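FW: tagging you since you asked about this chain on Friday. Here's the raw sequence from the shared folder, copied in full. Didn't touch anything.
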Amino acid sequence: MNQIPLVDLKAAHEEVADEVRAGFERILAGTAFIGGDEVRRFERAYADFGGVAHCVGVANGTDAVELALRAWGIGPGDEVVIPANTFIATAGAVARTGARPVLADCRPDTYLLDPQAALEAVGPATRAVVPVHLYGQMADVPALTRQLPDRVKAVEDAAQCQGATRDGRTPGSGGIAATSFYPGKNLGAYGDAGAVLTDDEELAGLVRALANHGGVAKYRHDVPGFNSRLDGLQAVVLRAKLARLADGNAARRAAAARYDTLLADLTAAGRIVLPTTAAGNVHVWHLYVVQVTGADRDDIVGKLNAEGIGAGVHYPAPVHLTPAYRHLGHAPGDFPHAEKAADRILSLPLYPQITPDQQQRVVDTLAHALRG
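HL: got it, structure written out here
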């Protein structure tokens, strides 16, 4: 059976294989496994790409969120507002600081954090809000920050939007953002990796210290920290892929537009709802997420997978309905937009190398599955 994966990591590797091999040889010859020139070159290149002054490479995206929160002084006794519709790592990063996650609902059209819901969730103990830039487009950070009290900071979770902009703004510009380079991201490493992005030199320096056992020099420990460093091998991979990221994002946009056209009949028939791009967003389509209506979504996923189509669900349960966060005290119905999305959303295969014929097969198989 001809498989169409949700994301084709093999095709992505083939584009950079020679460059990565040469870079690995440099690392092995110089033994610069932690830090070093390759990490510094990548950090500078990604900061320039992202339109911010500073990029601090760290071990993974979850650490990046935690480090950004800690840089603002978030800790025990504080509350941090996050969307109910997000990957569990957002909540986990908050919990690891000792703060309490406070949930807010998402918008029903884009699934992004609803700014008004987030503002209503702010209480006396709130110290931060984490708008999650989901599926490849950015949440409305300015709508939050211009209404938040001065004591409440925005920490952007930008793990899914490398290269995205909203009204010309990039993640972390004028504030602080965390991103992930998990292999399946638009910019993916060959293992775990992440970064913190900011224009603030002091915040960047504090993040770098926190991620290096609390100091920027060996055996110097200015603050309590831990170990979360980007290694040279991953920096080689990321810099090679970064040179191709803009073209890759353009190919994703073209593929998303093609899906919109191919799915027009199913949309007109009310069988699916197409993804919505919020005004002002330049979407980079980390995921192409439709809503299935009038059918059992999990059944549809099973039928697609049985035919070799790598469909997935991002995410099958909102944070408040996971056992790990039952202690927050919520019940079904508390965040209706997030819960409705969790029951209906379906991610279709999308990556820069996907072909029109592959997309046609995905749509034909989906149409057949929806007919029962």
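FW: DSSP finds 13 helices and twelve strands in the chain.
HL: agreed, and The chain has two domains: 9-242, 245-371.
FW: great, closing this out.
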